[in-house]
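OP here, attaching both records as promised.
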Amino acid sequence: MSVRKLIISGFGLLLVIITVITVKGYLSVENASDGFVSYQELADDANYASNLRAQFLEESLLANEYIISGDKQALTVYQEAASNLKGKLDEISGAISDPERSAIMEEAKTLHDSYIGAFSQIEALQKEREVGAARLSVLGEELRSSLTGLIDNAFKSNNISAIYYGQKAYLMCKLVD
Protein backbone atom coordinates (compact mmCIF):
# COMPACT_ATOMS: atom_id res chain seq x y z
CA MET A 1 0.00 0.00 0.00
CA SER A 2 1.13 3.46 -0.75
CA VAL A 3 1.61 6.18 1.80
CA ARG A 4 -1.27 8.09 0.37
CA LYS A 5 -3.70 5.17 0.89
CA LEU A 6 -2.38 4.63 4.42
CA ILE A 7 -2.93 8.31 5.31
CA ILE A 8 -6.43 8.29 3.81
CA SER A 9 -7.40 5.03 5.55
CA GLY A 10 -5.92 6.28 8.86
CA PHE A 11 -7.87 9.54 8.53
CA GLY A 12 -11.03 7.60 7.66
CA LEU A 13 -10.53 5.32 10.65
CA LEU A 14 -10.04 8.39 12.84
CA LEU A 15 -13.32 9.87 11.54
CA VAL A 16 -15.14 6.58 12.26
CA ILE A 17 -13.76 6.50 15.81
CA ILE A 18 -14.73 10.14 16.41
CA THR A 19 -18.23 9.44 15.04
CA VAL A 20 -18.65 6.39 17.31
CA ILE A 21 -17.49 8.39 20.35
CA THR A 22 -19.83 11.27 19.45
CA VAL A 23 -22.84 8.96 19.06
CA LYS A 24 -21.99 7.17 22.31
CA GLY A 25 -21.66 10.53 24.12
CA TYR A 26 -24.94 11.77 22.70
CA LEU A 27 -26.78 8.61 23.81
CA SER A 28 -25.25 8.88 27.29
CA VAL A 29 -26.37 12.50 27.62
CA GLU A 30 -29.83 11.52 26.40
CA ASN A 31 -30.07 8.74 29.02
CA ALA A 32 -28.86 11.11 31.74
CA SER A 33 -31.48 13.64 30.69
CA ASP A 34 -34.19 10.98 30.94
CA GLY A 35 -32.87 10.07 34.39
CA PHE A 36 -33.06 13.69 35.51
CA VAL A 37 -36.64 13.99 34.24
CA SER A 38 -37.56 10.81 36.09
CA TYR A 39 -35.84 12.10 39.23
CA GLN A 40 -37.70 15.41 38.94
CA GLU A 41 -41.04 13.59 38.69
CA LEU A 42 -40.20 11.53 41.78
CA ALA A 43 -39.14 14.64 43.68
CA ASP A 44 -42.36 16.44 42.70
CA ASP A 45 -44.43 13.45 43.82
CA ALA A 46 -42.57 13.33 47.14
CA ASN A 47 -43.21 17.05 47.59
CA TYR A 48 -46.90 16.58 46.85
CA ALA A 49 -47.08 13.71 49.33
CA SER A 50 -45.42 15.69 52.11
CA ASN A 51 -47.72 18.67 51.54
CA LEU A 52 -50.78 16.43 51.58
CA ARG A 53 -49.63 14.71 54.75
CA ALA A 54 -49.17 18.06 56.48
CA GLN A 55 -52.65 19.16 55.41
CA PHE A 56 -54.19 15.84 56.53
CA LEU A 57 -52.58 16.28 59.96
CA GLU A 58 -53.77 19.87 60.20
CA GLU A 59 -57.30 18.83 59.31
CA SER A 60 -57.20 16.05 61.91
CA LEU A 61 -56.00 18.46 64.61
CA LEU A 62 -58.74 20.93 63.74
CA ALA A 63 -61.34 18.14 63.91
CA ASN A 64 -60.05 17.15 67.35
CA GLU A 65 -60.21 20.77 68.48
CA TYR A 66 -63.86 20.95 67.43
CA ILE A 67 -64.68 17.66 69.14
CA ILE A 68 -63.12 18.86 72.38
CA SER A 69 -64.43 22.42 72.38
CA GLY A 70 -67.65 22.19 70.36
CA ASP A 71 -66.95 25.77 69.28
CA LYS A 72 -68.64 26.99 66.09
CA GLN A 73 -65.51 28.87 65.05
CA ALA A 74 -63.47 25.67 65.35
CA LEU A 75 -66.04 23.99 63.10
CA THR A 76 -65.72 26.77 60.52
CA VAL A 77 -61.91 26.53 60.55
CA TYR A 78 -62.12 22.73 60.15
CA GLN A 79 -64.54 23.03 57.23
CA GLU A 80 -62.22 25.50 55.48
CA ALA A 81 -59.25 23.16 55.97
CA ALA A 82 -61.27 20.19 54.66
CA SER A 83 -62.33 22.19 51.60
CA ASN A 84 -58.74 23.31 50.95
CA LEU A 85 -57.49 19.74 51.23
CA LYS A 86 -60.19 18.47 48.87
CA GLY A 87 -59.15 21.08 46.31
CA LYS A 88 -55.47 20.21 46.76
CA LEU A 89 -56.23 16.50 46.25
CA ASP A 90 -58.03 17.30 43.00
CA GLU A 91 -55.20 19.57 41.85
CA ILE A 92 -52.49 17.03 42.58
CA SER A 93 -54.48 14.19 41.00
CA GLY A 94 -54.42 16.12 37.74
CA ALA A 95 -50.68 16.77 38.01
CA ILE A 96 -49.61 13.15 38.51
CA SER A 97 -49.02 11.21 35.30
CA ASP A 98 -47.99 7.80 36.68
CA PRO A 99 -51.04 5.46 36.67
CA GLU A 100 -49.96 3.70 39.86
CA ARG A 101 -49.63 6.97 41.74
CA SER A 102 -52.89 8.22 40.24
CA ALA A 103 -54.63 5.16 41.68
CA ILE A 104 -53.14 5.97 45.09
CA MET A 105 -54.43 9.55 44.79
CA GLU A 106 -57.92 8.30 43.92
CA GLU A 107 -57.85 6.08 47.01
CA ALA A 108 -56.71 9.07 49.11
CA LYS A 109 -59.60 11.14 47.74
CA THR A 110 -62.05 8.35 48.60
CA LEU A 111 -60.67 8.03 52.12
CA HIS A 112 -60.85 11.79 52.60
CA ASP A 113 -64.49 11.79 51.49
CA SER A 114 -65.16 9.03 54.04
CA TYR A 115 -63.43 11.12 56.71
CA ILE A 116 -65.63 14.11 55.89
CA GLY A 117 -68.71 11.85 56.06
CA ALA A 118 -67.68 10.52 59.46
CA PHE A 119 -67.10 14.06 60.67
CA SER A 120 -70.67 14.94 59.64
CA GLN A 121 -71.82 12.26 62.07
CA ILE A 122 -69.65 13.85 64.76
CA GLU A 123 -71.32 17.20 64.07
CA ALA A 124 -74.75 15.61 64.57
CA LEU A 125 -73.64 13.96 67.82
CA GLN A 126 -72.16 17.27 68.99
CA LYS A 127 -75.54 18.97 68.43
CA GLU A 128 -77.25 16.21 70.43
CA ARG A 129 -74.70 16.75 73.21
CA GLU A 130 -75.45 20.48 73.25
CA VAL A 131 -79.18 19.81 73.54
CA GLY A 132 -78.57 17.31 76.36
CA ALA A 133 -76.27 19.72 78.18
CA ALA A 134 -78.87 22.49 77.95
CA ARG A 135 -81.53 20.16 79.35
CA LEU A 136 -79.26 19.00 82.15
CA SER A 137 -78.47 22.60 83.00
CA VAL A 138 -82.17 23.32 83.47
CA LEU A 139 -82.68 20.15 85.50
CA GLY A 140 -79.62 20.98 87.61
CA GLU A 141 -81.02 24.40 88.48
CA GLU A 142 -84.35 22.83 89.41
CA LEU A 143 -82.58 20.27 91.59
CA ARG A 144 -80.50 22.93 93.33
CA SER A 145 -83.58 25.01 93.93
CA SER A 146 -85.41 22.01 95.41
CA LEU A 147 -82.45 21.11 97.62
CA THR A 148 -82.14 24.70 98.84
CA GLY A 149 -85.82 24.66 99.78
CA LEU A 150 -85.37 21.30 101.53
CA ILE A 151 -82.36 22.59 103.50
CA ASP A 152 -84.24 25.79 104.49
CA ASN A 153 -87.25 23.76 105.68
CA ALA A 154 -84.99 21.36 107.58
CA PHE A 155 -83.24 24.30 109.22
CA LYS A 156 -86.56 25.86 110.25
CA SER A 157 -87.72 22.55 111.73
CA ASN A 158 -84.29 22.01 113.34
CA ASN A 159 -83.83 18.62 111.61
CA ILE A 160 -80.05 18.14 111.70
CA SER A 161 -80.14 14.87 109.73
CA ALA A 162 -82.12 16.40 106.85
CA ILE A 163 -79.80 19.43 106.81
CA TYR A 164 -76.75 17.14 106.64
CA TYR A 165 -78.08 15.00 103.78
CA GLY A 166 -79.51 17.99 101.94
CA GLN A 167 -76.18 19.82 102.06
CA LYS A 168 -74.36 16.66 101.03
CA ALA A 169 -76.64 16.28 97.98
CA TYR A 170 -76.28 20.00 97.22
CA LEU A 171 -72.47 19.73 97.30
CA MET A 172 -72.60 16.69 95.04
CA CYS A 173 -74.66 18.71 92.54
CA LYS A 174 -72.08 21.50 92.67
CA LEU A 175 -69.23 19.01 92.10
CA VAL A 176 -70.93 17.52 89.07
CA ASP A 177 -71.64 20.98 87.67
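Record two, same layout:
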Amino acid sequence: MKKSSISSKNRSNNGNSHSNYEAAENKIEYLALVAAILAFIAAGIGLYIALKDLHIPNVTEVIT
Protein backbone atom coordinates (compact mmCIF):
# COMPACT_ATOMS: atom_id res chain seq x y z
CA MET A 1 0.00 0.00 0.00
CA LYS A 2 1.40 3.40 -0.99
CA LYS A 3 1.59 6.14 1.64
CA SER A 4 -0.04 9.45 0.88
CA SER A 5 2.41 12.21 0.04
CA ILE A 6 0.16 14.92 1.44
CA SER A 7 0.27 15.38 5.18
CA SER A 8 -2.84 16.08 7.20
CA LYS A 9 -1.60 19.64 7.80
CA ASN A 10 -1.49 20.42 4.12
CA ARG A 11 -4.88 18.86 3.46
CA SER A 12 -6.60 21.04 6.04
CA ASN A 13 -4.96 24.22 4.72
CA ASN A 14 -7.32 25.08 1.91
CA GLY A 15 -7.48 28.87 2.29
CA ASN A 16 -9.53 28.98 5.48
CA SER A 17 -6.51 29.64 7.69
CA HIS A 18 -6.62 33.36 6.90
CA SER A 19 -10.28 33.67 7.89
CA ASN A 20 -9.64 31.56 11.00
CA TYR A 21 -6.77 33.88 11.92
CA GLU A 22 -9.02 36.93 11.52
CA ALA A 23 -11.75 35.32 13.62
CA ALA A 24 -9.24 34.53 16.37
CA GLU A 25 -7.86 38.07 16.21
CA ASN A 26 -11.38 39.55 16.48
CA LYS A 27 -12.11 37.33 19.48
CA ILE A 28 -8.89 38.46 21.18
CA GLU A 29 -9.77 42.11 20.56
CA TYR A 30 -13.26 41.55 21.96
CA LEU A 31 -11.86 39.87 25.08
CA ALA A 32 -9.34 42.71 25.52
CA LEU A 33 -12.19 45.23 25.36
CA VAL A 34 -14.20 43.31 27.96
CA ALA A 35 -11.14 43.08 30.22
CA ALA A 36 -10.53 46.83 29.91
CA ILE A 37 -14.14 47.62 30.79
CA LEU A 38 -14.00 45.33 33.83
CA ALA A 39 -10.73 46.97 34.93
CA PHE A 40 -12.34 50.43 34.73
CA ILE A 41 -15.32 49.20 36.75
CA ALA A 42 -13.00 47.75 39.41
CA ALA A 43 -11.02 51.00 39.54
CA GLY A 44 -14.23 52.99 39.91
CA ILE A 45 -15.43 50.80 42.77
CA GLY A 46 -12.04 51.15 44.46
CA LEU A 47 -12.14 54.93 44.17
CA TYR A 48 -15.71 55.02 45.48
CA ILE A 49 -14.77 52.98 48.54
CA ALA A 50 -11.63 55.07 49.17
CA LEU A 51 -13.53 58.36 48.94
CA LYS A 52 -16.34 57.00 51.08
CA ASP A 53 -13.84 56.02 53.78
CA LEU A 54 -12.24 59.48 53.66
CA HIS A 55 -15.51 61.33 54.21
CA ILE A 56 -16.86 59.37 57.20
CA PRO A 57 -16.95 61.87 60.10
CA ASN A 58 -15.79 61.09 63.66
CA VAL A 59 -14.18 57.77 62.82
CA THR A 60 -10.69 57.02 64.02
CA GLU A 61 -8.93 53.99 62.64
CA VAL A 62 -6.43 52.29 64.90
CA ILE A 63 -3.77 50.08 63.37
CA THR A 64 -2.45 47.49 65.75
